[in-house]
Design brief:
With 472 residues, the chain is α/β, with parallel strands linked by helices. It has 20 helices and 18 strands. The protein has helices at 19-26, 37-43, 64-72, 84-87, 90-99, 110-133, 152-165, 181-190, 212-217, 234-237, 253-265, 291-296, 302-308, 322-340, 349-357, 363-377, 402-420, 425-432, 436-445, 450-453, and strands at 5-9, 31-34, 50-55, 77-83, 102-106, 138-142, 145-149, 171-174, 199-203, 218-219, 231-232, 242-246, 267-268, 277-278, 282-287, 311-314, 346-347, 382-383. The strands form six sheets. The chain has a five-stranded parallel β-sheet with strand order 2-1-3-4-5, with helices on both faces. A five-stranded parallel β-sheet has the order 9-12-15-8-16. A hairpin with a 2-residue loop joins strand 6 and strand 7 (145-149).
Amino acid sequence: MAQPVLVLRLTSRNGQPCYYSETLRKQGLNLVECFDFGAAQDAMKAGCRVGLLILNQQTDLHSLDKCEPFISNNRITWVALVAQDLISQPRMRSFIGEHLFNFITLPAQLDHIVLTLRHAWGMAYLRDVSQEALPPPQLLADGDFAMVGKTPQMLQLFGQLQKVARTDASVLVTGPSGTGKELAALSIHRQSARKNAPFVAVNCGAIAPQLFQSELFGYEKGAFTGAGQRKIGRIEAAQGGTLFLDEIGDMPFDMQVNLLRFLQEKTIERVGGTESLEIDVRVIAATHVDLSEAVRQGRFREDLYYRINVVCISMPQLADRGQDIEDIAKYYFKKFAVMHNRSLRGFSKAAMNAMLSHAWPGNVRELVNRVQRATVMAEGRFIQPEDLGFERSSEQTPLMSLEDARAAAERTMIRRALSQSRNQISRAATLLGVSRVTLYRLIEKYNIRPEVIAAGRPPFVGGPKPDLELHK
């Protein structure tokens, strides 16, 4: 193996190479031996894909806490040589299970070590090549969450967000709940000239109607009972930045005229005040309802609708972004696994199939919540459908091809016809509406035998005799 192998010894003996290092070199392995993490970090630049960790002394157990961050935060596939008496230690077993590709107990056979290192190198090579072959998913990160995707819908969305960010035009973000409308608004803000100013989000559906005026515009001391001091409103708090009005379709009708007046005049008055305050904010609104229909029904002001809908951005549903589901799941798995369960390695094939088959009525929010739940609930090395809250049912299994479905249906109907006709070919062919020749051909194709059909049934007593030609 010409590729270099990083050898890390937690406890060095005056920098002297160990017996296994010298022997492996004689087998043609290119070893880069290090005795501390600094040297190992420099050696990684040589392009090592595989690391050999030597743990052969009791004192190595005390170094695992320092070793753990280094091992887990690099892309090297690690194999360990571990002394037999250390394997029984719970701390060592936990370390091996969470961070190593494989381990070998000492003393070990040389051929076994070489074979394991070559296997680790092969797996690391496949991992790196597969990741290089795929284009990196487009990612717009905003705080704790991110917009992930590389489907045409998301690439188009990213382009729209970048274009809109260059202007100060009002924006209306539409789409079902859970599609990430607030993330889109935050992305616009973060890419705009206002990025260093406040981003203030207001959920219009969560504010009581009687509190809307004071929440948005603020109030002066003594304006009403309980107003013991002046309080600035959400609009004023966003001075110089962006005001995000989420679920604007839920705003009370009588408050809509006040918001329209602010959008037209760029001034506000606090409740109980007489001073007119000039406010410079950009307004981004979002809704999951059809505002044009709300206008027709008289639930939303038409003039306000056109004022906020200068630019409209539609968020795609997750069900329409099938290729992004895996990328989103893996992105949030890395985020949550670090917080909840470091021993997890990823998703099982069954779990990924379950996610790809799910309709996702809650969109990205539902996917993020399910992944976080799975990182908490999973007990094995890989997340299973049950950890995601899915049942192992036919609904979650991959769809059968049309050819396989047709074959399964034909096989079932032939068995039923033979059972009803007591294996008489002529009668079964009549029931199925095919010729005897066709039925013989299908019986041979599907390898159907009369003893299988009649299994568990009492022998024939009287009545038509089974067709003996079926046994030929």
